[in-house]
UniProtKB/TrEMBL annotation:
The lineage of its organism: Bacteria, Bacillati, Actinomycetota, Actinomycetes, Propionibacteriales. ATP binds at residues 14-22. GO terms for molecular function: ATP binding; CMP kinase activity; dCMP kinase activity. This is Cytidylate kinase. It is an enzyme of class 2 (transferase). It is found in: Cytoplasm. GO terms for biological process: pyrimidine nucleotide metabolic process. The keyword Nuclease does not apply.
Length: 232
């Protein structure tokens, strides 16, 4: 989708626990941009399926259900809120039951088509800019973004971060399922392990969150300074 010159789009992809959400929010807050968590959209869709009588294997019915739903997608980096048919699901979509079931909805290609169209509408309406994070943003949703980043981190760091985030109440096997198994399932429909041409790889394993935000802001500055594509 072509973007107007004045709208600045930062696309961030990467596996679970690489730091996409925290980093993207940090960049958006620093620059006064909107923030779109596309994973939250798939989580909201998974929440709706769990509330219904449908099984996620009933792919056509699931996509119809999601097509007819009213999804409210917040883009405030200070605390985006999400609603499904008027119900606030912001906290509910972070529950382990959603993390465990979301890939089954996210691998439904008809659902992806619906949500990608919505993501492009949100990007097109952003002013003056937006940071968009997910798995297929640099490659499918916004391949013409001015800054495109693949954020990676060693699997052990990603599992440790997620474990820490969940406050130790979730067992090691469940954390590994949420990170490693989910990435394996998700990577059947989105390519986020290798950088596409023109995408800058940022490895956050040995960097603090602030350092990663700095790095992406530097890439934005390079584009503003007219030094062209900041790919490395
Ligand atoms: N560079 C970093 N160093 C240490 N911890 C980080 C870093 N980036 C993110 N985190 C932490 O790791 C966890 C997962 O980060 P998150 O942004 O949710 O990743 P993702 O969106 O890629 O799944 C969070 O608890 C976050 O605070
Ligand atoms: N653009 C996207 C974003 C997320 N997904 C899938 C992949 C994940 O299993 C779910 C939830 O994504 P989310 O970014 O919240 O996942 P994390 O828990 O941050 O790792 O959605 C996707 O397929 N495409």
């Amino acid at each position: 989708m072509p973007q107007t010159k004045s709208r600045f789009v930062v696309a961030v992809d990467g596996p679970s626990g690489s730091g996409k959400s925290s980093t993207s929010r940090g960049v958006a807050e620093r620059r006064g941009y909107a923030y779109l968590d596309t994973g939250a959209m798939y989580r909201a869709a998974a929440w709706l399926v769990l509330q219904s009588d449908l099984d996620s294997s009933e792919q056509e019915l699931v996509s119809k259900l999601i097509e007819q739903a009213d999804l409210g997608i917040g883009t405030d980096p200070a605390g985006p809120r999400f609603t499904v048919n008027g119900t606030d699901v912001t906290e509910a979509i972070r529950e382990p039951v959603i993390s465990a079931s979301v890939s089954a909805v996210a691998t439904n290609l008809a659902v992806r088509e619906l949500l990608i169209a919505r993501q492009r509408e949100i990007i097109a309406a952003a002013d003056p800019g937006i940071v968009v994070e997910g798995r297929d943003i640099t490659t499918v949703v916004a391949p013409d973004a001015q800054v495109r980043v693949l954020l990676v981190a060693d699997p052990s760091a990603r599992v440790a971060r997620r474990k820490n985030e969940l406050g130790g109440v979730v067992g090691d096997d469940d954390v590994r399922d949420q990170v490693i198994r989910r990435d394996r399932d998700d990577s059947t429909v989105a390519q986020f392990h290798d950088a596409a041409p023109g995408v800058t790889v940022v490895d956050s394993t040995e960097l603090t969150l602030d350092e990663v935000v700095d790095r992406i802001c530097e890439l934005i500055d390079q584009v503003h300074a007219g030094s062209g594509s900041p790919s490395s």
